[in-house]
Specification:
Strand content: 5-15%
Strand order of the largest sheet: 1-2-4-3
Largest sheet: 4 strands, antiparallel
Shape: elongated
Low-confidence stretches: none
Helix content: 55-70%
Radius of gyration: 28 Å
């Protein structure tokens, strides 16, 4: 944020800066909650233009909103005397409803949560059940005395989003299924047994529905950010300004 600082020359500007620094030094005793944040201007601008934000971008928006909220509460509770900085704090807007909507859908690591929608939660439950059914069917195959000898290794893996088992190439005809890949040496074929083809088809269909639902959720959250773009951008500018003032105050204190 420091790269946005400008050089001031007029006496009036310098006096204001000095006053801000003096006030900020008083606030430092109370440990103001100023945290590093991402470039919100670009993220907010993208949403404002109709772009769909990624889960990580939405998580950063939520983090920023919460950081601003903590700063708002700090200025309200602070007993430090201030003519300028508290006014800057009063110019910050609270976006707790938007924060709660985002955090209900996206966690701090950018993962889309089951709580984002009932449909998403339902799809994920169905996916989990189907994956268990596929694994159970393949476990029976890889541990069966009749088929174990045909396998390169008794493991379950994936190729092209399909669950497969590694079969020795010379035994290809002994395990009916679809070949999705082969090893570099050609000694191993990755075969999807016919017993799980329909289950894999159903699983991929559910995963596609999950993907579509996630895209819908992200678009909805991005539209909510877009509606508040102007005020969020103002918060970002004020937050950066206040951060710069506290940085000056820390430097001033270190130089004493």
């Amino acid at each position: 944020m420091a790269e946005n600082l400008t050089v001031h020359y007029s006496r009036e500007e310098i006096l204001v800066l000095q006053q801000e620094t003096t006030e900020a030094r008083n606030f430092l005793k109370e440990n103001p909650p100023i945290f590093p944040i991402d470039d919100m201007a670009a993220t907010i601008g993208y949403a404002e233009k109709g772009g769909s934000l990624s889960p990580l971008q939405l998580a950063s928006i939520a983090y920023f909103i919460n950081s601003v909220e903590e700063l708002i509460l700090f200025f309200r509770k602070s007993e430090a005397k201030s003519l300028i900085l508290k006014q800057k704090g009063e110019n910050l807007h609270s976006f707790q409803p938007l924060y709660h909507v985002i955090t209900r859908c996206i966690d701090e690591n950018g993962e889309v949560l089951d709580t984002a929608s009932e449909k998403l939660a339902s799809l994920r439950r169905k996916i989990a059940v189907l994956q268990l059914r596929i694994h159970d069917a393949l476990e029976k195959i890889i541990h069966s005395p009749q088929t174990r000898k045909y396998l390169q290794d008794p493991i379950i893996t994936t190729r092209s989003d399909r669950y497969v088992v590694p079969v020795k190439s010379e035994y290809k005809s002994f395990l009916k299924g679809i070949v999705h890949d082969r090893s570099a040496s050609g000694a191993t074929l990755f075969i999807e047994p016919l017993k799980v083809v329909e289950l894999n088809n159903e699983l991929n269909g559910l995963k596609k529905e999950e993907e579509i639902e996630i895209e819908r959720i992200l678009a909805d959250l991005s539209a909510r950010v877009s509606k508040s773009a102007s005020a969020l951008r103002g918060n970002y500018a004020n937050y950066c300004y206040i951060d710069a003032v506290f940085s000056r105050a820390r430097l001033s204190a270190d130089m004493d």
